[in-house]
Amino acid sequence: MSISGLGPHGERAAPPSRLSLTPSDVTAARDRRFRVAVVLHTGESDWSRQQLAGIAGTLGDCGVIVGEVVDCGFQAATQIAALERLSHEGLDAIISIPVANAAVAEAHRQVSRAGIRLILHDNVPTGMLPGADYTSLVSADNFGLGLIGAKLLSDRIAQGGEVGLMTYGVDFYATNEREIAFGRWIVANRPDLKLRTIRFPSLGAVRETTLSMIEESPDLAGLFVVWDTPAMEAVATLNTVGHDMPVTTVDLGRDAAICLAQDNHIVGIAAQQPFRQGVAVAEATILSLLGRAVPSWIALPGLAVTKANVADSYQTVWRSQAPQEILSAL
Amino acid sequence: MPDSGMVETSRPKRGKGRPRNADGAAQSLGTILNLVRSGAAHTRQELERKSELGRAIVADRLATLSEIKLVDESALAEASGGRAPRLVQFNANRARILVATLDQTALGVGIADLSGRLITEHHEAMDLSAPPEATAERLGTLFEWLLAKDEHSAPLWGLGISVPGPVQLSPGDDFLQATPTFLPAWEGFPLVEQLARRFSVPVWMRSSVETMAMGELHAGAGAGINEMLFIKVGKRIGASFVFDGKLYRGAQGAAGLIGHLPRAASGRTASLDVLAGSDMIARDGLAAAQAGTSPALADILNRGGEITAIEVGQAAQVGDSVSMEIMSRSGHLIGQLVATLANMLNPSLIVLSGSIAQTNDILLAAVREAVYGESHPLVTRDLRISASRMGSSAGLVGAAKVVSEALFDPSFLREWVTHGAPTAMPRLLAALDQMGTAAIGAPASPPAAAAPPGA
User: Where is the region Disordered (chain B) (predicted)?
Assistant: First the structure.
């Protein structure tokens, strides 16, 4: 599959194959005994656990020690404090998912200034430049994920309906791209549909946001939520109030996959490949530590998942068998 | 969005220290604001010294500038014995600037503060040969999305567009009142008029090679550099020159059209654009894929992929020998011309930009080889040649700088500062009225605060 989006600076994506490690790279990395820390936006999602597995496994194969994994709980202050502390701990590299835009930019720049390789995952604060402020960005094709989410939802929406776009109120590259792409696809392919944007400021506010959305737009014919954790909260809220509507989202989390298999609101998922993204992040880290040139943006395509292919897609994304709840519902 | 609420509140009242004519007030307001904005003065004492205005006038003008929220005196400066003075700071969040870059294959948009610092940006693929109406509508939609996403909900004061062709400006032009000629396919399309009417703000336009050079100068490799040569390699190859820290536009804004210069290669003579631009790279790459001489490109073609200059550059980067040869040939041709420019201009930095230059080290290496091999030793002694790290962000940063500098240009500032906002300036309001007929079909009202992308 091709990459639909452009990078944070308009770059064309490089494929993860550009990062392949040769046996001599692995040997060289093992000899150097690098130490790396991982700073996550959250450790509480299936996506985070999968990508961490990809990172830790690949780094482990190359003898690179993951000294610490920080869960920032989506808090900019936590991330800033963690980066400041880690910058003084003699690390060779830090892998980070910036939790915000300008608020965390300077803390990330300080990592590079301290001579530590900084590999970003999924988000680049505006103004940070590859080669100067960070080494490389690895992400999903977030624009492509938004296009997939729109197409999957469109199949379930009758002519002339109104669809909701539930998006993150925080300025975040990955969710911005999904949001913009969703709108672009609808305008280009379903001009008959009305689009209503609803923003939630934090995960804790999703229930309230969903309730006010239903109150203000009771005839909403469908909903796209920019990732699975808030989508599950929205689905739970819809179930509580007995409101039925098709929902699409991004990320094949376990709960979202089960909802898809069991026809519980979720009708389609634009899945990232977090394990493979984690592998790519680790490979980019190793190559840059070995002094090799790495592309400024490496992107992996998303997968369109419906009930028809949820079991095999689950295996692709999770690298393990689909849970019984999925298999028994098919 | 007009900031019309400021019209009444900002009008200077008669009082102590006020000059008897509005021109004098506007001049001193402008002087003080630009001293604060440029960082030349940080306290009232410094303002009095640098502006050569009396204490009462400085205090009065600062009160007016605080009233219209362009300066902030809430923080304290460091004390040097005695009581700490109040810090006078420019409020860059007072308003916003929208910017866009139109390129042959991509559209970039961004929102910036009044200092020209980008806050959010977005880039997406787009074919500039598509009908201008569709592109302009997409641009407007993305601008509305950026405004809706702005957490400060600050008013909009200006709009800057970067386009892939030279922009002719008349002497004395500040904001545009009609769309200048920039690309044959857009001839007669009222892009400036539509955007100005839709967002009720002044619009500025510059060529992409100019805005990218500006961006590189302010936020990229050119920061702190006084003599820079900027080369953009794409379908067209263009150059921009910075002398003494300032961009040189030429008499008609057409400086740097080096792609039009004739070159000779492989037994034929044609323009540099034809012999070394991205169309040539794509064409030779496609021929190699079809002939099977490049396994990497043939594989892309066999899988139904398209061969563009980007694919050739990426194949070269992973060692495909035919692709490396194509990139190297292009790089040498460009490098020979850049060497001539370097010998003429003696820059301290040459920045190579454009998507091909940024995805590929071979082009950069070939240019370096040609420049270092064909230049006087004095020219290359401290010369740095690098690829841009800013990518298309350079065009957005540069466009924001163009608008920021234009808004606070002393003569323009004098015209609007007593009205509180440039969007309340009578000359702009009259121009927007005049532009009305050109913008038929565009929404007459400002965008809704929560307008979704694509809505």
Answer: 1-24
Residues of chain A with pLDDT under 70: 1
Question: Distance between CA atoms of A16 and A129, rounded to whole angstroms?
Answer: 20
Count of CB atoms within 10 A of residue A63's CB?
A: 16
Average pLDDT score over chain A:
94
Residues B402-414: pLDDT tens digits? 999 999 998 898 8
Number of C-beta neighbours around residue B32 at 10 A: 28
Beta bridge partners of A66: A36
Flag whether pLDDT at B14 surpasses 80. no
Distance in angstroms (rounded) separating the CA atoms of residues B336 and A35? 45
As for how many domains chain B has, the answer is 3
ipTM here: 0.92
pLDDT at B254 over 90: no
Q: Cβ distance B351 to B386 under 8 Å?
A: yes
Same domain, residue pair B18 and B58:
yes
- Which residues of chain B lie closer than 8 angstroms to A182, CB-CB? 453-454
The fold of the A16-140+274-300 domain, in CATH, is Rossmann fold (3.40.50)
Q: What is the CATH number of the domain that holds B71?
A: 1.10.10.10
Q: Which of A17, A106, A129 to mutate to probe the B interface, most B CBs <10 Å?
A: A129
Contact A10 B355 (CB under 8 A): yes
For residues B46 and B160, membership in a common domain is answered with no
In angstroms, rounded to a whole number, what is the distance separating the alpha carbons of residues B453 and A22? 44
Digit-coded pLDDT (tens) for B184-199: 889 899 999 999 999 9
Note whether residue B449 is domain-resident: no
The span from the CA of B317 to the CA of A151, in Å, is 35
Reference B145, options A266, A120, A146, A296; nearest CA is: A146
Binary contact (A10, B310; C-beta < 8 A) = no
For CA atoms B178, B180, B182, B183, give the dihedral sign: positive
* A1 touching chain B per CB within 8 A: no
Tell me, yes or no, if A287 comes closer than 8 A to chain B by beta carbon: no
Between CA B341 and CA B257 the distance in angstroms is: 12
Closest residue in A to B138 (Cα–Cα): A184
For residues B367-385, give the mean pLDDT: 92
Q: Closest Cα partner for A329 from A314, A128, A90, B198?
A: A314
Whether the Cβ atoms of residue A3 and residue A145 lie closer than 8 Å to each other: no
Per-residue CA distances from A78 to A71, A83, A85, A127, B62 (Å): 9, 9, 11, 21, 38
Flag whether the pTM goes above 0.90.
no
Name residue, tokens 């519980």: A264
Q: Which domain holds residue B106?
A: 93-210+394-439
